[in-house]
Amino acid sequence: MKRIIFALLFILIILVLIFYWLDHEMNAVLKNEADGSNEYVVILGAKVKPGGIPSQSLKNRLDAAVDYLKRYPTVKAIVTGGQGADEDRTEASVMADYLIKHGVAENRISLEDQSTTTYENLLFAKKLLPDNTASITIISNDFHLKRATILARKLGLKADVVAAPTPKVINTKSRIRERLAIIKAYTRGQ
């Protein structure tokens, strides 16, 4: 019985250590903040509400993108995201409209509107990049950027980041779920 208790305690300690290590990894990636040196920024898609209204997570990403693109007027944007079963428009089209409405020139925006996952966002966005592109900037919510940079690296792209705040109402749930997704990205690559 003592062996079972010891084994369970050992497993619990390992899980707690992994939990905190992943939290550290999610926060450490934020230090690699973008400085406008990459020609392209990839803005990762998120939920769109009926009527083509960005969810709060997506709106935060887009607001960060507008600020960044205004600060660096030569940077081009790729907006990503297909149309989910409960969405009446593609995420990419809603994102492009939002950027244009907020002063980003339409000729600076490319749409990747087929993806359904973060991996596909980056994979399909890479096809829109010039062949010699080795580095991009990724814009997403803060909790999401570690996994996005792992996936970009697996696709042969270096990435710096622009972090959008995560809405408080989903922050805890998102950070817990993202830990599992990071483990999957490390082990399976998607």
From TrEMBL:
GO CC annotations on file: plasma membrane
DUF218 domain spans which residues?
A: 40-180
* CDD domains in alphabetical order: YdcF-like
Pfam families with a match to the protein in the record: DUF218 (PF02698)
Membrane-crossing ranges are 5-22
Q: Name one GO biological process term.
A: Gram-negative-bacterium-type cell wall biogenesis
Keywords of the record, alphabetical order, are: Membrane, Transmembrane, Transmembrane helix
Its protein name is: Uncharacterized conserved protein
Q: Which organism is it from?
A: Solibacillus silvestris (strain StLB046)
